[in-house]
Amino acid sequence: MSESSVRSTKGTTIRQHVFVVSTGRTGSLALAQYLDAAFEGVTAVHEPKPSRFLRIAANAHLAGKISDETATRLFLRARQHVWSESHDPIFVESNPFLVGLLDVFGQACLDPRVIHVVRDPRTWVRSVLNFGSRRGIKRIAARVVPYWVVKPEQLTFAPQRPYRKMTHVEWLSWYWQLANQHLRRGSELYGDDYLLVRYEELFRKGGDGIRTLARWIGLSEREDQLDPLLKIPVNTSRSDTVPHWPAWSDKDRNVLLKHCGELMEELGFDTEEPPCTSS
Prior knowledge:
By secondary structure, the protein is of the alpha/beta class. It has a single domain, classed as Rossmann fold. The chain has helices spanning 3-9, 28-38, 51-62, 68-84, 105-108, 121-131, 136-144, 168-183, 186-190, 199-202, 208-217, 226-230, 250-266, and strands at 16-21, 39-40, 42-46, 90-94, 113-118, 194-198, 220-221. It has a 5-stranded parallel β-sheet. Helix 1 packs parallel to helix 4, helix 3 runs antiparallel to helix 4 (68-84) and helix 8 (168-183) packs parallel to helix 13 (250-266). The longest helix is centred in the first third of the chain and has 17 residues, at 68-84.
């Protein structure tokens, strides 16, 4: 057992760490709320502070700018207080900012479990843009804060056009492929403790996807708690200015399929059929 593994649970009741990682706009907030409120023996949190600091560290680690050791130290420093406040044996962190720390989970915690949620990029890009994640202060941060977002020119292994020359749709498509390809490595790193689940299946009506995931984690459901929660919208998009996939321009559709098409097919998304618009 490594020193970092001992440190991850010292002074806490936690016996199982579970990390839910994704590109964001994949129901990460809703999932944390459902698990925390409707299941027993678990503390489930969404982007606990200081997640924005970890976002920068994770992106820098993904780009190869900081070592595994440094990333692990920063991660432990940021999470010791959060973990110490938990009084449950299972701790779930649902946090898309941690994509670049995939390799670190196993160094910071003993036998972590990793859930990789992936969403069809055709609805994901639309959701990101309609949520406003590429406007205002967030757009400024992406331009001026180092590693607030991952940019092609920061990576030696994935050279592409520089960020400043990319449209929003192009960068988002590029990032979807980069992040999800990276997260798929969880299968090699964590074996049976890694689970890939599609957003569309996780949040299908009736709650079956949530319940299946909870059973995989090892949770018991509280009676009559989940179904009422499923009826309440969580963190929905703020506008509807970006249309559904069939109304996209040929240019934008071609850009997305260029970056995402191959991985979409590997993950079971039908590139020939329009995506489901009800999710």
